[in-house]
Design a protein that fits this description.
- The protein is elongated, with a radius of gyration of 20 Å.
- It has one domain.
- With 139 residues, it is mainly alpha-helical.
Length: 139
């Protein structure tokens, strides 16, 4: 049954290198060429790459980057917090200040990189219009 569904889909072109696209997206670069910036602001994805003009408006990153950021930062900071408390016994205000700054810094660093990564995954897998029927050349 699934063979009949997939055979009716138009050809989507050559395979895209997912690993390379993910690395480029993590570096906040265009997943197609690796040269252009994927963002026009901190988290605003450009409508198209300024270098190769690959359309990027199809992305549907939504809450994925925020969820992944919270997951990664939490898994790094929680054990570090417990280790620092047991090992050094700092004053509560010093510890709260240090870990607040660390959490904020790590979150601000990771959020745009993870968003670029998710957009790149979608591009590499031709999801949400990246290389779909509307991207095929028209006669």
């Amino acid at each position: 049954m699934s063979d009949t569904l997939t055979s009716d889909l138009p050809s989507t072109g050559p395979a895209r290198d997912s690993r390379q696209a993910m690395w480029r997206g993590f570096r906040r670069r265009c997943p197609a060429c690796g040269e252009g910036h994927i963002f026009t602001g901190y988290l605003k994805v450009a409508d198209e790459c300024p270098v190769c003009h690959e359309p990027m408006r199809h992305h549907r990153a939504d809450d994925g980057p925020a969820y992944l950021t919270i997951l990664i930062v939490g898994h790094i900071m929680a054990p570090t917090l417990m280790w620092a408390f047991v090992e050094f016994r700092p004053e509560p205000l010093v510890m709260a200040t240090a870990f607040t700054l660390g959490t904020l810094s790590l979150s601000l660093f990771l959020l745009p990189r993870l968003k670029g990564l998710i957009v790149a995954i979608q591009w590499a897998n031709r999801m949400h219009g990246f290389g779909g029927p509307e991207a095929l050349p028209r006669d």
